[in-house]
Write a structure and sequence with these properties.
By secondary structure, the protein is of the alpha/beta class. It is built from ten helices and 14 strands. Helix 1 links the parallel strand 1 and strand 2. Helix 1 packs across helix 5. The longest helix is centred in the first third of the chain and has 24 residues. The radius of gyration is 19 Å and the shape is globular.
């Protein structure tokens, strides 16, 4: 099914949670360039005159009620970083609450205050499928049973509560986003230092996507009034950890001479969080392609050339 852009969507007002992250920052710039009014919900003020910032504190259940004034659509990207800290029980709770309690705060506002919000477009993650080996995951594949999957299931369920408010809901299960920052920077650093090596077996699948395609898909969801449901936000061509490590080394003109980093060592260093780098998740992009999305970067070599400019 192809989704046709709605001419009615131009110049609308959009509220972003998580607007200062890698995806939120890039999407904000795209929306401003296209003439949208953009505001952010944030824990601290920011000094960009183009963007109005409303304050909230999810842990305390506090939010500026004026954040939804005049807003047509909400983009929900907020969430504590998955790989920022070791996964203690407290950190796990923070990771889930930052995704679920945040959207609940907004829905509570929509229930009690007059508004014109029509849609919520939310991030989710390929952690929904978690470590599935060689099996190809589709949007209707069942979730896994580990913490990453639990986090994504609760995240999506919280977002879906908006359906009862008559909102259009779209969710993107996001893969590993390739940009100069974030995950790619962490993968490239050891390569730059001549100590790069595949992790574990190196055969685990990495469902990746270029940042430009991430923002492209969000724009598609924003600009099409009948776009809804859940979509995998990955390219049609996943690569293994070894293939990605080799592609990074080739792009940076660095040798790979060390043996693979042993899985047991990563488990020792990272604990349960090691599933992020050792888990194998092979994910289909068929549904978003059938919806009419055309990838700017479907091959990892071309994506890395654009990012590093070499």
């Amino acid at each position: 099914m192809n989704y046709e852009p709605s001419t009615m969507n131009q110049k609308k007002s959009i509220l972003l949670t998580g607007g200062t992250g890698i995806i939120g920052s890039a999407l904000t710039e795209q929306l401003l360039d296209k003439g949208y009014t953009v505001s952010h919900l944030s824990r601290s003020p920011r000094k960009d005159a183009r963007i109005k910032t409303f304050l909230w504190d999810v842990a305390k259940g506090q939010v500026d009620a004026h954040c939804i004034d005049g807003v047509d659509m909400i983009i929900h990207l907020a969430g504590a970083g998955i790989a920022d800290e070791r996964w203690s029980d407290e950190r796990k709770k923070e990771m889930i609450d930052s995704r679920t309690k945040s959207i609940e705060l907004i829905y509570d506002l929509l229930k009690t205050k007059k508004h014109q919000v029509k849609a919520v477009i939310s991030a989710s993650a390929i952690g929904y499928y978690s470590d599935r080996g060689e099996e190809l995951m589709y949007e209707d594949s069942p979730p896994f049973i580990d913490f990453m999957a639990q986090c994504c299931v609760e995240w999506e369920a919280a977002v879906d509560e908006g359906k009862a408010l008559g909102l259009r809901i779209a969710k993107f299960r996001t893969g590993v986003v390739l940009d100069k920052h974030g995950a790619l920077a962490k993968m490239a650093m050891p390569v730059k230092l001549y100590v790069g090596a595949p992790l574990g077996s190196g055969r685990q699948w990495i469902p990746w996507i270029h940042l430009q395609d991430v923002t492209g898909m969000y724009l598609m969801a924003i600009e099409n009034d009948n776009f809804g449901g859940v979509y995998n936000m990955v390219t049609p061509n996943p690569v293994t950890n070894k293939q990605l490590t080799q592609a990074i080394a080739k792009q940076l003109h660095k040798p790979l001479w060390l043996p693979n980093v042993p899985a047991f060592l990563l488990k020792l260093l990272l604990g349960e969080m090691s599933t992020i780098v050792l888990g194998s998740t092979k994910v289909s992009a068929k549904k978003i392609e059938q919806a009419g999305y055309e990838f700017k970067f479907s091959e990892v070599g071309a994506a890395l050339r654009e990012i590093y400019g070499k």
